[in-house]
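Justification of computing resources. Each target in the renewal requires a structure prediction run like the one illustrated here; the chain below, 91 residues long, is used simply to show the kind of job we budget for.
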Amino acid sequence: MDWTVLLLALGWGLLSAVSLPAGALIGLWSRPKERVISALMAFGGGALLFALSIELFGHALHVASDEHAGIENPGIILATMIAAVMGGLLF
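Resulting structure tokens:
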């Protein structure tokens, strides 16, 4: 394995691991207003939902497609699209 890729992955992993405690310390130190806190929480929740949605849709498309990038099972894609709309309306 290439050491450059390994070190790059290690760096990003460390940065993401440190971001939560660093953000907590900044929040304790600066004492932002409740409006700012709620905006940041909404942004974080939206980012989490987006990441989860991308992961689920990517997996559904991978399962539904064959090796030649053709659609093997359009029912999976249709079910995923309907579930996404229903989940959005329910949310």
